[in-house]
Task: structure prediction
Amino acid sequence: MASFSQFGNDLYTGKRSYNIVGSRRIWWIVSGVLLLIVIVGTALHGGFAFGIEFRGGSQFQISAAKNLSQTFAGNTVKAVVPSTQPVVTIVGANDVRIQTDQLTTKQSVAVTDALAKAYNVKQTQVANSFIGATWGADITRQAITGLVAFLVLVAIAMSLYFRTWKMSAAALIALAHDLIITAGVYGLLHIEITPAAVIGFLTILGYSLYDTVVVFDKIRENTSEDGDQSRRTFGESVNLAVNQTLVRSINTSVVAILPVAGILFIGAILLGAGTLQDISLALFIGIIVSTYSTIFIAAPLYATFRSGEDRIKKRDKRALAARESSVAGTSVAAVPAAK
Result:
């Protein structure tokens, strides 16, 4: 623990430093590859796999089932409705949930009877329900409206707080990066997107923004304190801020991801709770990606956006000239005077 604290102190003082901003092209290539993988992978799978709440359909749930074989449940349903492709999920300790495309009333009754006989349970133990696609469409529309409003307010608030639109632009690009990769993992692995997963997607935007604002605040502090005599270029000041907040970002991520990992493990493996699994998986992926984007995407992007400004170019030129002059003076002083 002491060594880790010393490591953080060395990063803060500049005694130890990682050239994150200077190596930004590497991080952008990594992100580009990840984005390409999830986008192409999702396309090859035919797009996202939306849950029944979004596409609509029929759902059957068997309580206290003794046979938890997903194949058995699927074959039982297909024996009644051969054209359907049932999705079977084990819920909790001994419940089986089967989701299909929309069935007629006659088909639903027939499937209920078949499941009751196959599992040797009473018909009252086979719950039958229908979920319309209209509800999913409403949720999707509200989620998109909320997301757009959130991004607009974030852009305005960050522009006013940091007094530059370039920080808000860098933060929004990082947010888009996080959302695309997190959602893309669902598409790549063909995991169903449910309302709980959508809630997880929206939640990670807040986490990513929080972490980014902390780093940006330190960047503003460093760059505003640099005067005309500073020997640091603008990019070096940004890089120092990233290094100074690096340990904090890591600690925050670890603290956030441990309980999420616990919920994911307990919800998915021990309890079989689908809702817990959906929301915790989105959070688990999102926290990891958000931490990466805050350090390796947002801050380097901001430095790049500002590097073309005349004031920044003049400042960097002065800093480099002062540094060269100092090195030259030291070299002359080191040469002994001629006798």
